[in-house]
Design a protein that fits this description.
Blueprint lengths: L2 E6 L4 H16 L8 E6 L5 H13 L9 H8 L2 E5 L5 H12 L5 E6 L4 H12 L7 E5 L7 H14 L5 E3 L7 H12 L12 E9 L8 H5 L2 H19 L8 H14 L5 H6 L1 E7 L1 E3 L2 E3 L17 E6 L11 E6 L6 E8 L17 E7 L3 E10 L5 H5 L3 E10 H5 L6 H11 L8 H23 L5 E4 L6 H8 L10
Bound molecules: 6-O-phosphono-beta-D-glucopyranose.
The site of 6-O-phosphono-beta-D-glucopyranose has 3 residues, from loops.
Length: 493
C-alpha cells in the first residue's frame, strides 16, 4: 500500500517534536508501508533538501534517541518532501494537487497540525480543489475549537467535505500503551468485571502532572488553559476508559458509543458543585529539581495579569447504576512536583474486619501508571509474619501492605509503539478505534462549559486562580477537595 502523508504545520513544534520522530520510529522498525512520502507543508519557501536540513537540525537539538541522526536520518529523510502553501490561497491547493497526482497513492493523509482556526478553511479548500477523495483521510489535532459552539462549527465544516469515517480526531492519550492496556485489562479478563463498580470501588483518581511549564507556547496556552488543554480531552478520555461499559465488540463505533454514554452521564454542574468541587490554579515562581523557575505570569507570551489556569482539580460523579455515589477526581497541572500520570482505583475496606487493620494508607488499591513508567500495581494487604521471638508468640501476624507490580516496559520490551506512532499507523491503515467521534467531543465540551462560565464570572468579580509555587502539587484547595470525602491524592500517602 502506498501512502502520501501531507503534514500541514510541517515546520511547527508538533511536527518536529512528536509527529516526525514517531514516523521515524515507525520507519526504523519497518512498520511504515514501503514507498510512502511525507510532505511537510508550511508558508516558508523551502526546497525538499532545505526542509530535510531543517528537520535534521531540529532533531539534533533534542536529546532523545527517538530522533534519528547521521545515516539513519539520511535514509528517513528520503521520505521527506516539502510544499510551500498559504492555506487560505486556492492556487496553492492546486499545486499540492499536482504534487499528489505525481504518484496517485492508495492513501492520502491530510494531517492538520495547525492552529484550529485554519481547520475550516483548509477543509473547504481541500474539498474545492478536489482533494477530498475516497482515498483521503483527514487528521485533526486538538484543540478542536475553544468551546461547544466553535467545536460544532469546525465539525460541521469538516463534515461538509469528509465523511465521519475519513475523520481522525487525535487525542494522543488514547494511543498511549497504558491506555490500551487498561482496555485490555478490563475487557480481556473476566476477573475485574464483577468488582469494577460502586460496591467495591470507593473512589477513582486521575492525575496528569507535568513538570514542564508552558515552554515556547505561552501565547497559545494563555488563550487555552488547562481545562481546555488537558481536561476536556485527555482526562475525560481516561475517565471514559475506566468507566465505560463493555462494548459489544472492538470496532470503533462500539467503543465510541460506550464512551459517549459515560460523557453524557457525568453529573451536571450546579452553582454549589461549581463552587465546591472545582479548583483553578496558576503557578507562581518556585523551584524544580533545585532550579528556580519563573511563575506563569513571567513566561513569554503570557498577558500581564492573566487569569489563565495552569492547574485544575475537580470532583465529579457518573450518574448510572455502576458508578452512582463514587467520586471521580481529576487533577492536572503544569510545573508540579513530578512528571507523573496515573489512575488510582481505591477499593472499599472489607465489610467486616477480622484483622486489626494497620493505619496505613496506600494499600487496597489498583494503580494504573501511565508515565513516566507504564504498568500497573495492585496494592493489597498480606499477613506479616516477620516478627520473631517473644513478640511472635504474643501476637498473631498482622496485616501489612504489599504490592503486585507489572511493568509493561519490562514485560514487553522497550520497543513498544509510542502514542503518536500507534495513531499515525492507525490513520494510514484506516483504523478509527483510537480516535474521537464528533459527538464525544461535543459531550465533553458541553460538560466543561459551565466551568468556563463560572470562571468568567469569578474573573468579573476580580477573583483569579489560586496560586501555587512551581514544584509543588498545586494549591492546598486541591487536597481539601478530596479530604472532604476522607481521601488523599496518592502522593500524599
Ligand atoms: C498536549 C498538551 O495535548 O499534551 C500539552 O497540549 C501537554 O500542554 C501534553 O504538555 C502532555 O502530553 P504527554 O504525552 O507528554 O503527557
Amino acid at each position: 500500500m502506498s501512502f502520501d502523508l501531507v503534514l500541514f504545520g510541517g515546520t511547527g513544534d508538533l511536527a518536529w517534536r512528536k509527529l516526525l520522530p514517531a514516523l521515524a520510529q515507525a520507519y526504523r522498525h519497518g512498520s511504515l508501508p514501503q514507498g510512502g512520502r511525507i510532505i511537510g507543508v508550511a508558508r516558508d519557501s523551502l526546497t525538499d533538501d532545505e526542509y530535510r536540513a531543517l528537520i535534521r537540525s531540529r532533531f539534533e537539538g533534542v536529546e532523545d534517541d527517538k530522533q534519528p541522526t547521521g545515516e539513519e536520518f539520511e535514509r528517513f529523510a528520503q521520505l521527506l518532501h516539502y510544499q510551500r502553501m498559504d492555506l487560505t490561497q486556492p492556487d496553492d491547493y492546486q499545486q499540492l494537487k499536482s504534487r499528489l497526482a505525481e504518484r496517485n497513492a492508495d492513501v492520502v493523509v491530510m494531517y492538520l497540525a495547525t492552529a484550529p482556526q485554519l481547520f475550516t478553511v483548509a477543509c473547504e479548500q481541500l474539498g474545492a480543489a478536489g482533494l477530498a477523495t475516497p482515498q483521503t483521510r483527514v487528521v485533526l489535532e486538538k484543540p478542536l475549537g475553544h468551546d461547544l459552539q466553535s467545536n460544532r462549527a469546525i465539525n460541521a465544516a469538516v463534515r461538509q467535505v469528509f465523511d465521519e469515517g475519513q475523520i481522525f480526531r487525535i487525542d494522543h492519550y488514547l494511543g498511549k500503551p497504558s491506555v490500551q492496556n487498561l482496555l485490555a485489562l478490563r475487557f480481556g479478563n473476566a476477573l475485574f468485571e464483577p468488582w469494577w463498580r460502586r460496591e467495591t470501588i470507593a473512589s477513582i483518581e486521575i492525575t496528569i502532572a507535568e513538570q514542564l511549564g508552558v515552554e515556547a507556547r505561552g501565547a497559545f496556552y494563555d488563550g487555552t488553559g488547562a481545562l481546555r488543554d488537558m481536561v476536556q480531552n485527555h482526562a475525560l478520555q481516561l475517565l471514559c476508559a475506566i468507566a465505560m461499559e463493555p462494548p459489544i465488540n472492538a470496532h470503533a463505533d462500539a467503543i465510541r458509543d460506550e464512551k459517549l454514554k459515560v460523557l453524557r452521564s457525568l453529573s451536571p454542574w450546579t452553582p454549589t458543585t461549581l463552587a465546591q468541587d472545582v479548583v483553578r490554579g496558576q503557578y507562581a515562581a518556585g523551584s524544580l529539581a533545585g532550579q528556580r523557575v519563573p511563575g506563569y505570569q513571567g513566561e513569554d507570551g503570557v498577558a500581564p495579569g492573566s487569569h489563565t489556569e495552569t492547574f485544575v482539580a475537580l470532583r465529579t460523579q457518573i450518574a448510572n447504576w455502576r458508578w452512582a455515589g463514587v467520586p471521580f477526581y481529576i487533577r492536572t497541572g503544569k510545573r508540579l512536583a513530578a512528571r507523573e500520570a496515573h489512575i488510582a482505583i481505591h477499593l472499599r475496606p472489607t465489610p467486616h474486619a477480622i484483622y486489626p487493620t494497620p493505619l496505613v494508607c496506600g494499600a487496597n488499591r489498583l494503580v494504573i501508571h501511565l508515565q513516566p513508567r507504564d504498568g500497573l500495581a495492585l496494592h493489597l494487604f498480606a499477613a506479616a509474619s516477620e516478627t520473631r521471638g517473644a513478640q511472635a508468640l504474643a501476637e498473631a501476624p498482622g496485616l501489612t501492605p504489599v504490592q503486585l507490580d507489572l511493568d509493561f516496559e519490562q514485560r514487553f520490551g522497550s520497543r513498544r509503539v509510542g502514542a503518536y506512532e500507534r495513531l499515525l499507523l492507525d490513520v494510514i491503515a484506516g483504523r478509527l478505534n483510537l480516535f474521537v467521534r464528533a459527538d464525544e467531543q461535543e459531550a465533553a465540551w458541553r460538560w466543561v462549559e459551565p466551568i468556563m462560565q463560572s470562571w468568567q464570572e469569578q474573573d468579573a468579580r476580580g477573583e483569579g486562580p489560586r496560586l501555587y509555587a512551581a514544584g509543588t502539587w498545586g494549591p492546598g484547595a486541591a487536597s481539601a477537595l478530596v479530604a472532604r470525602d476522607g481521601n488523599t491524592w496518592i502522593e500524599e500517602c
